[in-house]
Task: structure prediction
Amino acid sequence: QVQLVESGGGLVQPGGSLRLSCAASGSRFSLYAMRWYRQAPGKQRELVASITPGGSTNLADSVKGRFTITRDNVQNTAYLQMNSLKPEDTAVYYCNAWTSIVQVPVGGVWGQGTQVTVSS
Result:
């Protein structure tokens, strides 16, 4: 039911910043836990950050102190603010939504992904 569209990726130098956006439509955004994953070429997809409907957040150890996940329930959008970017942050970043309130696919609903490249 919910549909996710990601934006904000691009090329940035080490130490730079990007903000990714995940715009949701077609459902009640406030009922969903939102998560950001990333996948680099040849590597497994990893969970980067999550935020509950109540606003509680969790971050992977590799991005703590650098990344922040937020949500705007009026705009139906989740964000991933990425600061102090490193080359190892280079990956395709995916937005994911999950809830137990309404029926969703196992594993949640996924966006199409947006490429983040950190390079000099």
Notes: Residues 30 and 88 are 32 Å apart (CA to CA). The longest strand covers residues 18-25. The two ends are 40 Å apart (CA to CA). The mean pLDDT is 95.
